[in-house]
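[Meeting: bench + compute handoff]

Bench side (C.D.) handed over the final construct sequence. Compute side (W.E.) agreed to return the predicted structure before the next meeting so the bench team could plan truncations. Sequence as handed over:
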Amino acid sequence: MIFPLFTWPLCFAHGFTLGAVSPAVVVPSMMILHKAGYGVKKGIPTSMIAASSFDDIIAITAFGIFITVSMNQAKGGIASEEEGGDSIGFEVMMNLVQLVAGLVVGMGLGFCF
């Protein structure tokens, strides 16, 4: 049996897909601890819920970066180097710019509403 070999960027993209699922495990367990009264005085359950949300944002952003890189590197991919495609550094910077722009627009709309 022959197993297909994944490229490193595609492997990292799949890993961050699994990382984005972690709040589905953390949030219900922290709610159980919160209802039981464990760590409520120090705010541990609510801090863990907020941290898992932030972790989810990072996982989704990193997934976007790695899936873009893997699709650009694929044979006949989105933007081949022969066709004047973008470099990996450019793709990473564009994803970071999109993240910051989304944060600014979200904060602005949240303030307006």
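W.E. noted at the follow-up: The helical segments are 8-19, 23-36, 44-73, 88-112. C.D. will use this when planning the next construct.
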